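Q: What would this complex look like in 3D?
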Amino acid sequence: MTAVTEAHEGTVRPYTLSHLDALESEAVHIFREVAGEFENPVILFSGGKDSIVMLHLALKAFAPAAVPFALLHVDTGHNFPEVLEYRDRVVAAHGLRLHVASVQEYIDRGVLRERPDGTRNPLQTLPLTERIQAEKFDAVFGGGRRDEEKARAKERVFSLRDEFSQWDPRRQRPELWNLYNGRHAPGEHVRVFPLSNWTELDVWQYIAREDIELPQIYFAHEREVFQRSGMWLTAGEWGGPKDGETVEKRLVRYRTVGDMSCTGAVDSDATTLDAVITEIAASRLTERGATRADDKLSEAAMEDRKREGYF
Amino acid sequence: MSTTAELTATTLLRFATAGSVDDGKSTLVGRLLHDSKSVLTDQLEAVERVSASRGQEGPDLALLTDGLRAEREQGITIDVAYRYFATPRRRFILADTPGHVQYTRNMVTGASTAELTVILVDARNGVVEQTRRHAALAALLRVPHAVLAVNKMDLVDYEESVFAAIAEEFTAYATELGVPEVTAIPISALAGDNVVEPSANMDWYGGPTVLEHLETVPVSHDLAHCHARLPVQYVIRPQTADHPDYRGYAGQIAAGTFRVGEPVTVLPSGRTTTIAGIDLLGTPVDVAWTTQSVTVLLADDVDVSRGDLIVPTKDAPATTQDVEATVCHVADQPLTVGHRVLIKHGTRTVKAIVKDIPSRLTLDDLSLHPHPGQLVANDIGRVKIRTAEPLPVDSYADSRRTGSFILIDPADGTTLTAGMVGESFASPEPVKDQSDDDGWDF
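A: Here is my prediction, written as structure tokens for the whole assembly.
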């Protein structure tokens, strides 16, 4: 391995992988390590592009056999209908098993209370962690990428969580070579991030290369939106718009898919994958900066939520 | 060419940075990210906002990389972080490792996956102990390329002679250790000289900028001379109507190339057969190479399971229960003689016992401390391990993947130690203190 060719610009390099092939191969390796070492793994699936790419990688990793994992969706109750429809169609098409943990159910039972700002993103943590404990999932795949946020830049590929699902950034295991350590005590579990080394652009390029179908809200379409805190939010039964906020029809698309109450749309006329990629490559805003209200709550919002068990 | 094709044709370079506290490593990383336009407006605004709230005049680029509360509060970097940036020619994964002496394990972690290390030196101080330590770690981890970034050239009047003397001293030292390739670049991370843009202040320098070098350094390997190795991760058996008899051995090729029709041996059992087919994530191929994730189909119905290693029959490693290695201890609890551990090598995890710790290495002067009795966090030493089952280990010099392992505490799962099998450094290095010993070769 240490023998290095003195290859120069332009010489044929038959044994070099393109960056997407390298990232794909690494992610597949991670999926297979988990399949080999854990009893009861599950893939967090929101119907967003990252979890869709994760599922695609899992399908390739175990082909021609079925994916040996179930899916888990934390339903905030404020999901985009297009995304739920996509979720159910994918689950049926691949014969997968889907667990749904419902935030609405927790609110109805009085266990969780609606926040004054209306966002349900932080409310996902309890249904998620309780379902992990109840189903005894020992490995939980998340689509988190280290490029998303600086607390995530410190995240391991295999990230041990205690029996309360908590993350302690100061007590992480060093990860050396590709030797992942999945040892855990009963009650603990490991969060696994196969897309750790991917960037938003990598994800989009991979979607284009593999021709992966996405929910239509990722592409430009006319939509009724209103402005709140500088973001275009979808009008809907979840509680927007309020007094003084006016609805208008705009040509928009989404960069991330989450709870309708805190996921903003961006003005866009990108109706194809190529157009989306051109737009992302030229964007001067991160996807979270552009479209996520919850990360703006404080400088350490993501770190704090991750410590509690958020993905 | 469409945007997609243009951008996906690029390759990926993993590299690590190393530098002492005040060498300007955060500034260099910040400048690489900033000048390659990888810092987006909202991130920069956040940095400016926090810098201003602390009363700092300009944006503190170190805030881009210190992500955790404790780091921001204490103004230090406590852990490896991974950064991502890209140019039209290449994608980069940067393992940003803190430079304090007590964080040796972090540099080892970052360097374990890196193909290049950037070692920073303050032009005013030249090669210091910390520099030698970083060079030794790069050599120990066998990182194929090293960049010596002589920083703060603006503070030595951009003098060529200052740079030349440091470059010469460092290159001689690194070459002796066996670092295969050293590229020295005079820079000022603060002023931006030779980081992304060529410097107008050093026309005597004709080499590449840091970014140019990162973009062009070769990442391909000459696999003709590599021992082919496939650690089996998982057995794929669909047992469906379409594939009633499919039995594939899935894994990521750790080294070399495999071809359909090639005679192979399965270790540790030693059974032989031939490769009947290779599936590259669902597509049949004739040949596959490192680091592709593949599924291999074998001609005969031999017993193969997770943890086995598939190798060419003509090039099989010996299996052994006695492993000698150089290790870096990464856990807070010490490693002692008699310690019962688990060893994870490739996809196999077996019980093992630490039989002996013949020596501990001082990185500053490469001197040896014989029989230290234990290794504590950040110590580097020689270790002899007896394993409960035979392992097909390669020398780390031949294969960074099948020559490496980790030790795990069986009680609580802690990753204890990072190990590299075989001799420590690539070329012999005479040392004053030739005290013992079995296995040290420098």
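A: To summarize the key features: Chain B touches chain A through 98 residues (CB under 8 Å). The domain at 319-421 of chain B is CATH 2.40.30.10 (Elongation Factor Tu (Ef-tu); domain 3).
Q: Very helpful, thank you.
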